[in-house]
Amino acid sequence: MRQVSNSPLPTFVVTDPIEAARELALRLRDLVAEQPNFVLGCATGHTPISTYQQLAGLASSRAIFGGLRTFNLDEYHGLASDHPGSFESFMRRHLFAPLDLSPERTLFPRCCEGESPVQAAERFETKIQESGGIDLQLLGIGRNGHIAFNEPGSARDSRTRLVELTASTRAANAPDFPDGTPVPTGAMTMGIGTILDARRLHVLAFGVHKAEIVRRALREPASREIPASFLREHEQVELWLDDAAASSL
Ligand code: GLP
User: Fold this and answer.
1) What is the CATH number of domain 2-242?
2) Is 117 a residue whose pLDDT tops 90?
3) For ligand 1, is residue 46 a contact (CB within 6 Å)?
4) Is 16 among the catalytic positions?
5) For a pLDDT cut of 90, what percent of the chain falls above it?
6) Are 185 and 165 in contact (CB under 8 A)?
7) Is 148 in the pocket of ligand 1 (CB under 6 A)?
8) Which residues contact 82 (CB under 8 A, 6 or more apart)?
């Protein structure tokens, strides 16, 4: 592992993403062992899967993570929670089932029956506050610079809300809907302000297809056009890259 010296935020580069996944899983285990009511912010997408696999594979992880609470960054709007393409299904497959976490401990921004998106968003933000706030938020970066589903144009102080997905994001996520279900056009997402409220942020980006957006997020002036650029404002943020994603720095 090496550190990028001239980056505006602590930036670690590994040869193989699995190295980062192992390191993050061990750190999380230690943090949760010290603080059993730990609140973890979870991300979906391909990037965090190896970290979840490492976490699930740690010895005695079920006992350690029994008191964990989680909040997911985002969820498709209007998609049943048990649809294979939903982020809730993704999390059950990759982390919650292996850790035996019950649904009551894992919250997603989604509308309950009869609830409007505005009410659901307020309820989600209130639940985060009632939990004491997110201790550590895992994040990926979309190819267009989105974080969670905060697409380019999202405000720095945005909160949880219903958003429309861009065509490029829907195309990028189409492989998660192999049965031909159209990728939903909307999603509920934590806002950038919600994300920046977490006490720590661990941002992951792997692969050469992330190299250009990583460069822009670190080197260009922070702006709404690159939502990931706002992550630089956080005081406890770390970026984990592989050599390919760091290749344009
Ligand atoms: C998705 C998610 C983001 C994720 C991003 C990158 O649409 N909403 O939270 O970080 O896209 O996904 P991947 O890790 O598959 O590149």
Assistant:
1) 3.40.50.1360
2) yes
3) yes
4) no
5) 93
6) yes
7) yes
8) 88, 89
